[in-house]
């Protein structure tokens, strides 16, 4: 998974400015990126201007795709540093295997959380006999400086808390909402919630005013904080609001992401999240030499080779896209 592709510009919904230079809401159109040989994802973060929502630094939406006569997702062993990966399926199956020895089949309604720490390798592959449809999200969480060099870890959560707020059926993926808390362990103040809205639904979700938020629609169409939202874009909301009004004229599945603003500038290149060009060079060299990350147990596929380093120095960027170093 690479983050080196060109990123589109932002679009401000009408009336989205607070009167100063900083918009209160921004519509971020996604762009298509190949993932492995058989899957294309719509990437919504990182974006040219809004690189993060809290510590959420990478948002991919894939499907719904008919994979009845195709291999489905086939991503061979590859490395990660400095992040957590979150995989959430609403259709299909993906087999996760990693260098810690974990071998886990992910099914709809179950959450995979992998913590890379200083380094881990894993693969993501649809089983040979898999469901006809595949649909889900892959997300990255940037680890703060105090934990990013720690031990790698993996957890699988098949029983996430659910609740109903008005017309909305909610599943808490990460963090807590309205007294329901996910068992997924993260290292920054974060929120991830799936909301199912039947046709004609209206409702309001409570928000932490200290968080920034992002909303994406996986299927259907919704009106979010007065802005129309369809699959393929992420609506960014700046800190401040205490509630989020939602409405849908048709059955809709959406995901709310949130978190305290993450103020550490990051270097994101290929599958690595670091703080400097030198860290990325070292991680790439270790992967190429077979150091640090270890083999993915039980996966016979050839490891994914790292792309060539760019000819210019990779500079750290903050959540707004400003460069450092």
From TrEMBL:
**Record-annotated Pirin C-terminal domain positions:** 194-291
InterPro entries (UniProt xref): Pirin (IPR012093), Pirin_C_dom (IPR008778), Pirin_N_dom (IPR003829), RmlC-like_jellyroll (IPR014710), RmlC_Cupin_sf (IPR011051)
Q: Outline the segment boundaries, as ranges, of region: Disordered.
A: 1-31
Alphabetized Pfam families for the sequence: Pirin (PF02678), Pirin_C (PF05726)
What residue stretches are annotated with the Pirin N-terminal domain?
40-141
- Reading the lineage from the top rank, the first entry is Bacteria
Family the UniProt entry places it in: Belongs to the pirin family.
Its recorded name reads Pirin family protein
What is the species of this protein?
Plantactinospora siamensis
* Source lineage: Bacteria, Bacillati, Actinomycetota, Actinomycetes, Micromonosporales
